[in-house]
Design brief:
The protein has eleven helices and 19 strands. It is α/β, with parallel strands linked by helices. Strands 4-3-2-5-8-7-6 form a seven-stranded mixed β-sheet, sandwiched between helices. Strands 10-13-17-16-19 form a five-stranded antiparallel β-sheet, with no helix packed on it. It has a five-stranded antiparallel β-sheet with strand order 14-11-12-18-15. The structure holds guanosine-5'-diphosphate. Residues 56-223 form the CP-type G domain.
Length: 369
């Protein structure tokens, strides 16, 4: 067997144990010449980028050097998990470099939506995150919408700079990268690498005509996202794959909604009003009286209330409560990362409480729809 310890494509240290981590090479592929990691292999042979993940701390360390460079940064986010997937603190690490927000999975929004309204909403939210956004593109990898626009926007704003593509896991980053590889790269050109100061991480760069590169960065893992907590199977249940059909509940105070056994929404105080749930149509919502809610959970979590199933339930962090006061006269959503959001329809104000696994992002925001 070959004794190479590093990839001859990108130089990363090889390992055969974890396919989701950098440098992975299947055991049997070590016999092949040249010895390249699975990531380089896929790019070379299938024109396709593989997924590599890191946590945000490691990630921002790697990105630190971008501040001293001229670069354009593309942050791809998931419209269904916007607050969960936006890269917080990005601007601090990239200095004055501009950001393009590519908002993916736009196909999930109910049909007939006003897209300008969505763009304005995204712009406002991005500003609150301190991002210097030069452009916002709505797209759908799945429906093949908007990516030509992404390429166009990159051409407009790149101005002879490198492009860094960043994003949380599951937002559709690999689809975008693959699209960019097909749109741009000269396949005969050598893949090049850059070493990130102070780390052992070598990343594959996709060459552009003018000697600059598109740099794919590892997908960022956020433990504040429900999509990182649940099993593959349950991910299929909570992540919508069709346009969301909103479900309206007329609730009196002291009524509760269960989203499987993953989260619970209590209407504690306020006048009778309607709440619209924007969640995957595969996720069951159970309505009950607040006074019965604890008992219902105790007796039915993991069975009638699922996902998750009973044995998976033990792997989830215990619930914590988030009390939220919706001010009178506001147009608000209650956002629960990975589950979706609940639109508060009246402007009467309400006192609400959300129960969700500890650490999962839950917040009050301006209504998206
Ligand atoms: P990555 O982890 O960011 O590289 O994301 P992937 O490209 O692997 O996609 C993650 C998941 O999101 C997959 O289940 C995709 O099918 C799904 N996905 C990606 N793009 C879209 C999209 O535009 N719309 C919808 N509905 N799902 C998408």
């Amino acid at each position: 067997q070959n004794t190479a310890t590093s990839c001859s494509g990108c130089g990363v240290k090889l390992q055969t144990t974890d396919a989701s981590k950098l440098g992975y090479i299947p055991e049997q592929a070590l016999d092949r010449e040249p010895v390249i990691c699975q990531r380089c292999f896929r790019i070379k042979n299938y024109n396709e980028a593989a997924n590599i993940t890191l946590d945000q701390g490691e990630f921002l360390k790697i990105l630190g050097h971008v501040a001293e460079k001229q670069a354009l940064v593309v942050n791809i986010v998931d419209i269904f998990d916007f607050e969960g997937s936006i890269v917080g603190g990005l601007q601090r690490f990239i200095g004055n470099n501009p950001v393009v927000l590519a908002v993916n999975k736009i196909d999930l929004l109910p049909r007939g939506m006003n897209m300008n309204r969505i763009v304005n909403w995204v712009r406002k939210q991005a500003k609150e995150q301190g991002l210097k956004v030069v452009d916002i593109v709505l797209c759908s990898a799945k429906r093949n919408m908007g990516f030509d626009k992404v390429i166009e926007v990159l051409d407009t704003h790149r101005q002879g700079r490198d492009v860094y593509v960043v994003g949380a896991t599951n937002v559709g980053k690999s689809t975008l990268i693959n699209r960019l590889i097909q749109g741009y790269s000269d396949l005969d050109a050598e893949l090049t690498t850059s070493r990130y100061p102070g780390t052992t991480l070598d990343l594959v760069e996709i060459p552009l005509d003018d000697g600059k590169h598109i740099i794919d960065t590892p997908g960022i893992v956020y433990t504040s996202r429900m999509t990182e907590l649940v099993s593959r199977k349950d991910l299929g249940t909570i992540m919508p794959d069709k346009p969301i059909k909103p479900i309206v509940f007329q609730l009196n105070e002291e009524q509760s909604l269960f989203f499987g056994a993953l989260a619970r929404f209590d209407f504690l105080k306020g006048e009778r009003q309607s709440f619209t749930c924007y969640v995957s149509n595969a996720l069951q919502i159970h309505r009950t009286k607040l006074e019965k809610a604890d008992e219902l959970y105790a007796n039915h979590a993991g069975v009638m209330l699922q996902p998750p199933s009973k044995d998976e339930l033990e792997d989830l962090p215990k619930w914590t409560k988030h009390q939220i006061r919706v001010p009178k006269g506001s147009e608000s959503d209650i956002f629960i990362s990975g589950i979706g959001w609940i639109r508060v329809n009246s402007d009467l104000g309400a006192l609400l409480e959300v129960h969700a696994p500890k650490g999962i992002k839950v917040l009050l925001r301006d209504a998206l729809i």
